[in-house]
Design goal:
It is a single chain. It contains one helix and 13 strands; from the N terminus they run αβββββββββββββ. It has 207 residues and is mostly beta strands. The radius of gyration is 19 Å and the shape is elongated.
Length: 207
């Protein structure tokens, strides 16, 4: 079984377990959004701006990220969620442009330690990962990247208690710190691998 197959089997299993929990215990479903930034990963490209002389670096794990998803909370302590997002970074000079983007899919299970703190773990897979270069650096090419399935560990601090969230009860949310372990290979050159391992800090809301 390939890593990708294992990931999708895991996602399917998680989906079935969430569905069963929803039917058996009338789990509460909420929508959530998050927005933040990440840092880390191997260097994709680096150099100097010609106008200022300052250094720039684009890494395989850095960028701004927005996520949208659904959570099923079947008890005051346990919940599961699935999300899709957009992870993006770029740098522009007077004569060049570099862009790096991917569409992450995440599936996670969370445990509430108390009303303020939650911990979670799950899986992540990035679709449509692309690195593009324009201008005088166009010779570096534009590459599609193949992501490996990755793991996620998360700590959440709730600024508003999750148990108060849900339709008609107002929004809840807080601050999230994630560690994501993933990697990327250039399609057609599978010996060239870059670590996308990164830390991500974001604000989130359930409503």
């Amino acid at each position: 079984m390939t890593k990708i197959s294992a990931l999708f089997y895991s996602l399917a299993l998680l989906s079935l377990s969430v569905s069963a929990a929803a039917q058996d215990s009338q789990a509460k479903r909420t929508t959530f959004v998050s927005f933040g930034g990440s840092m880390g990963g191997d260097v994709l490209v680096s150099g100097k701006y010609t106008t200022t002389g300052k250094d720039f670096t684009l890494r395989a794990g850095q960028g701004l990220q927005a996520m949208l998803g659904l959570q099923y909370q079947w008890s005051n302590t346990w919940s599961a969620q699935a999300a899709v997002g957009f992870h993006f970074d770029k740098t522009n000079g007077s004569n060049f442009n570099f862009k790096y983007s991917r569409i992450p899919l995440e599936a996670m299970v969370h445990y509430a330690i108390n009303d303020d703190w939650r911990v979670g773990a799950g899986l992540r897979y990035a679709l449509s990962a692309k690195f593009k270069s324009d201008g005088d650096t166009a010779y570096l090419g534009s590459n599609e990247l193949q992501a490996s399935p990755g793991g996620i560990a998360e700590v959440q601090y709730m600024l508003a208690p999750l148990i108060e969230s849900g339709p008609g009860r107002g929004a809840s949310g807080g601050i999230s710190l994630k560690l994501v372990d993933e990697s990327f290979k250039v399609k057609g050159a599978r010996t060239v691998e870059r670590s996308g391992q990164h830390w991500a800090l974001s604000l989130f809301s359930y409503f």
